[in-house]
Design brief:
Layout lengths: L17 E13 L3 E8 L2 E8 L5 H8 L6 E10 L14 E12 L16 H6 L1 H4 L3 H23 L3 E2 L17 E3 L7 E3 L5 H9 L4 E9 L11 E10 L3 H20 L9 E3 H8 L12 E3 L1 H4 L5 H8 L3 E7 L7 H13 L6 E5 L5 E2 L8 H10 L7 E7 L1 H18 L11 E5 L4 E4 L4 E4 L26 E6 L2 E8 L4 H10 L4 H14 L7 E7 H9 L29 H6 L4 H4 L6 H6 L5 H8 L5 H23 L29 H4 L6 E2 L2 E2 L7
Helix pairs in contact: 4-6, 4-15, 10-12
């Protein structure tokens, strides 16, 4: 047989003609002499009727014995369903295929989990059988939507004069950001390529080459800790433009994102997108990626707290810190448990505690702070945070960074508690601009570039590059959607003098500059146009557009949170001959080439030491069995440690216990003879417990 139609592409206008369809048997209903099978392919499902009167004995027997998810080819005629059996929820629900012949192309084994109820299956299992998981309509539609967005991006950029150019995957490591994935060279042993974290340097070289407008849907790699919206390998929409300023690029990005949402979702985003400087975003929302779907702005009360009677506030201000507050309108009824939970979260964010005021409905304040402020100062404090009867106001006093992290985190926690972020169809974009050019690294003892060393400072801040780096603002910008950073970009340095001062501010020697960026600096000597660019994560954008909880829902073959692939087992060991060819055979001697599982299985347990700690005597005939059993326990513990538990709720509830331990005070030990006086049998100065269970 040769397929003539997709199952889900047939329509009622096709009724009356013959068709050959192929796909997976989604389910089967045997009515005795008549069998109904829903046949599924990429485009949808079609009900197929196997009637013993219309089929050969062999074909009907094959339909009777068919297992779910087996692949079949069916030949027959399309006919209308009776009125009472029509299914209006399906595009093919008004008709069915009356089978005249069937061929089983591939018999399926029993499935490891039911596809129709995969939501209750552990994610690690679904990822191990991802080829089955992708048969579920939801994931298939996610991939289809992703492909459409990628096509819309390409079409739009092509229409705007951008040229698609591929850049190398094997490139040079430039350690000025996240960790690189390194690739050893066989030809140049002892040397390594790096997989690109982004095409940053090459797209700037393309501007030097005169390409003018470049784009690429690029694969990128970063060796960093994972989370729900991060993967070690990801897809980035990358672009660079010549002879532009920041305003040109922001207008271009706004047009592009509005086009994508209009064409992909039918949503007309409001224009213009709100704009916030980095400082405004941190002051008002405690985050450089603010979620604008709800209010809860942060209020600064530092000056009111200066010199107040509350020592926590006063000392924070005296130390150069800030005091800020969040006003939760109408929630003076927060329970003691809720307030304690918010306090715990504040402590987890790094704050020393959380002061609060509950303004009862009659306007009476309930707070310890009333003891430390005069009536006039307390009224001024409430006025600064727009405090009204019924409000709940919480405070944080500490360093600027700690206060922003704490109140920014609590703002999102409160939004979730109050259900302010539940509408998946609410999309709020904004631009965040004017990021600091540098941030100080305590670990390295120097200023490092907030974005990268090629970001152009504002002209008016250039005099402070070497004298006051913390004051310098970068012509850098982020696009934020619903509290998620979609991507970032900047205007690049095209002046050799500015680039030299930038490297000097970062503490690079001439040798380091040549080693890390020599090829780019060299290119800049031959005429460099003013240019800037931007890149955003395609995976992350699609996740936001679909309201998916994780990037893994919009990627065909994702990794787990520890960067493993349950499907293929990657990363894994390689053949020693491969390491030898790369000049890395010495790693085997150090155990580097041995997989973790093998190393655990080779672990020998010191039974004598364990027995001594447990005060047990091990008979010689028991030693071998105990060694094997304890090694199995070590291996099992390793398997538990590798299990991906992200999103898995705790299986039990543990009640906190207090005062359950005796004071650890040394007492007078009893003589061994007294301890053993009541023992029915002793052995070598210990109780002897005979074996009673095999």
């Amino acid at each position: 047989m040769k397929r003539t139609d997709y199952c889900g592409a047939l329509r009622e206008t096709d009724v009356g003609r013959a068709a050959v369809v192929m796909g997976w048997a989604q389910n089967k209903r045997d009515m005795g002499g008549v069998i109904f099978i829903d046949l599924r392919d990429r485009e949808g499902t079609l009900q197929v009727v196997f009637d013993a009167q219309n089929l050969s004995r062999e074909d009907f027997a094959a339909a009777e014995g068919l297992r779910v998810e087996s692949v079949v080819a069916v030949r027959g005629e399309l006919r209308p369903r009776s009125e009472e059996t029509r299914n209006p929820r399906l595009a093919t629900g008004a008709f069915e295929l009356c089978a005249r012949g069937m061929e089983v192309l591939s018999e399926a084994r029993p499935l490891p989990f039911p596809l129709e109820d995969a939501a209750g299956v552990r994610e690690e299992v679904r990822l191990r059988y991802r080829f089955l998981d992708l048969r579920r309509p939801g994931l298939l539609e996610n991939l289809r939507f992703r492909a459409r967005v990628a096509r819309l991006v390409s079409d739009y950029l092509e229409s705007e004069g951008f040229l698609a150019v591929e850049t190398p995957m094997l490139t040079k490591s430039t350690p000025e950001g996240a960790r690189d994935y390194l690739v050893p060279s066989r030809v140049h042993q002892g040397e390594f390529y790096a997989l690109p974290q982004s095409p940053q340097i090459f797209k700037q070289l393309l501007m030097v080459a005169g390409i003018d407008r470049y784009y690429q849907i690029a694969r990128c790699f970063r060796d960093e800790d994972l989370r729900a919206d991060r993967q070690p390998e990801f897809t980035q929409v990358d672009m660079e433009l010549s002879f532009v300023d920041q305003e040109d690029i922001l207008r271009h990005l706004e047009r592009m994102f509005r086009h994508l949402f209009r064409e992909a979702l039918g949503i007309e985003l409001p224009a213009p997108f709100p704009r916030l400087t980095w400082r405004e975003a941190m002051d008002r929302y405690g985050s450089d990626k603010p979620d604008l779907r709800f209010g809860l702005p942060i209020a600064d009360v530092t000056e009111l707290a200066r010199g107040c009677g509350f020592s926590v506030f006063r000392k924070a201000v005296e130390a150069g810190g800030v005091v800020r507050a969040l006003n939760v309108k109408g929630r003076c009824d927060f329970s003691r448990g809720t307030i304690e939970e918010l306090t715990k979260k504040a402590l987890a964010y790094g704050a020393g505690g959380m002061a609060w005021i509950a303004l009862r409905e009659d306007g009476e304040p309930y707070s310890v702070l009333t003891k430390y402020f005069s009536k006039a100062d307390f009224a001024a404090l409430l006025d600064a945070v727009d405090g009204r009867p019924g409000d709940f106001i919480l405070f944080c006093a500490d360093r600027f960074s700690t206060v922003c992290r704490t109140l920014g985190g609590l703002r999102l926690d409160l939004a979730d508690l109050l259900g302010l972020r539940r509408d998946s169809g609410d999309y709020k974009f904004c631009f965040v601009t004017d990021f600091p050019q540098f941030e100080y690294s305590e670990e390295e003892g120097r200023y490092v570039a907030t974005h990268h060393p090629f970001t152009m400072p504002y002209p008016e801040d250039l005099p402070y590059l070497l004298t006051d780096p913390a004051r310098v603002r970068a012509q850098a910008y982020d696009v934020v959607l619903n509290g998620v950073e979609l991507g970032s970009g900047s205007i690049r340095i095209h002046s050799r003098d500015v680039q030299k001062r930038m490297f000097e501010a970062l503490g690079f020697s001439d040798g380091q500059i040549g080693e890390r960026f020599g090829f780019l600096v060299n290119a800049f000597q031959y005429g460099t146009p003013p240019h800037g660019g931007f890149a955003f994560g395609l995976d992350r954008l699609v996740m936001q557009m679909l309201g998916a909880p994780s990037l893994r829902d919009v990627i065909a073959f994702p990794k787990t949170k520890d960067a493993r692939c349950p499907l293929t087992g990657a990363p894994g060991p390689v053949d020693p001959a491969q390491l030898d060819a790369l000049g890395l055979a010495g790693l085997l001697r150090e155990g580097v080439g041995v997989p973790a599982k093998a190393r655990r299985s080779q672990t020998r347990v010191d039974v004598d030491a364990a027995a001594n700690l447990a005060r047990l005597r091990v008979a010689p005939e028991e030693r071998e069995a105990l060694e094997r059993q304890m090694a199995e326990l070590v291996a099992f513990a390793g398997q538990l440690a590798e299990a991906d538990t992200e999103g898995v709720p705790p299986a039990g509830h543990v009640v906190p216990l207090e005062n359950v331990f005796r004071p650890d005070r040394a007492g007078t030990p009893l003589p061994r003879a007294d301890l053993l006086a009541g023992a029915p049998e002793t052995w070598d100065g210990c109780f002897f417990v005979p074996q009673v269970v095999e």
